[in-house]
Design a protein that fits this description.
mainly alpha; two-stranded antiparallel sheet
């Protein structure tokens, strides 16, 4: 009985090893095919030229029987070998040198974007946690959604104190943060724009110019000052001061975060820091202190109606 169990165990181990080897062989074959496909994709011009030369060689041999095919074939082969050397060796050496020279700038760019993205994440985590309340931890990709933004815009009381030092209400903290974010983006684009990926450049630019960050930095304070001068009792919610983040804005934010994650995998050996991938919402209270109460909301609604009636 014991011998049968031992044989069965060895048989299972052998089967597992065979399966692993099959998986490894398939993976290596797939990688090899991918490299071949990349070679053909990157060297289309060389392949087209070689194909045309071979076709012309065949045509000449058929049309001109006395044509010296051997000498032409030798010349074509020599040219092909030199072209392969230029593409596969010399060009590769040039690319490696350029990549090595670009790496310090790449690290600096990642660090700048990583700091911006981390602060941006922390701001929205605080806004949500202190207004909506305790929730399950969620990935940053799922956090930046229309539903989450709607909750923040409808529940965060801008007159309450933000969790920062020195003390300031959410209104001023959001305004100051938006100004800082836009300054950070402008500096990143001005310094690193020439060698930045076009999609990253576009996402940062649109986030600075076309998203609510622009209205937070330039319009919220003006609206608030106008309300004070006119005595208008505006409800202290973001929805009263600014448009919400659109689907395009959220896609830009997600792209910036995904770019940071990809770059981190390439640069983590350089000692760079990682952008958080999980929003820790479980650390907040179930009854958040910055959520607007139903009484305050009703009071502001009544005051707005009374103000409008007096202006009729």
């Amino acid at each position: 009985m014991n011998k049968n169990l031992t044989v069965l165990r060895y048989k299972n181990k052998i089967l597992e090893l065979i399966k692993k080897q099959k998986i490894k062989c398939k993976t290596r074959l797939r990688q090899f095919l991918i490299k071949i496909a990349e070679f053909f994709t990157c060297n289309k011009l060389l392949i087209i030229t070689l194909t045309i030369a071979l076709v012309m060689l065949v045509i000449c041999s058929l049309v001109f029987p006395n044509f010296d095919i051997q000498s032409l074939a030798i010349n074509i082969l020599a040219s092909f070998i030199m072209a392969c050397y230029s593409i596969l060796i010399a060009d590769r050496i040039v690319k490696q040198k350029a990549t090595a020279e670009l790496k310090p700038k790449r690290i600096c760019l990642y660090r700048e974007v990583q700091i911006f993205a981390t602060r941006f994440l922390h701001l929205f985590e605080e806004m949500y946690g202190l207004s909506v309340g305790k929730k399950e931890d969620i990935s940053s990709d799922k956090f930046f959604s229309v539903e989450v933004m709607t909750e923040i815009y409808a529940l965060l009381n801008l007159e309450t104190e933000a969790n920062v030092c020195p003390r300031q209400c959410w209104r001023y903290y959001i305004i100051n943060s938006a100004i800082q974010f836009r300054n950070d983006i402008d500096r990143i684009l001005n310094v690193y724009g020439p060698f930045m990926e076009s999609e990253l450049f576009r996402a940062l630019y649109r986030l600075s110019i076309e998203s609510p960050l622009y209205s937070w930095a330039n319009i919220m304070q003006q609206v608030y000052i106008y309300d004070l001068s006119e005595g208008f009792p505006r409800c202290p919610l973001l929805i009263s001061y600014s448009p919400k983040f659109s689907t395009k804005d959220l896609e830009d934010i997600k792209y910036i975060l995904s770019w940071c994650n990809r770059e981190y995998q390439c640069l983590k050996e350089e000692g760079v820091y990682k952008v958080p991938e999980i929003i820790m919402l479980s650390q907040y209270a179930e009854e958040p202190r910055c959520r607007i109460s139903s009484e305050d909301f009703q009071r502001f609604s009544t005051e707005i109606n009374e103000y409008r009636n007096t202006k009729k």
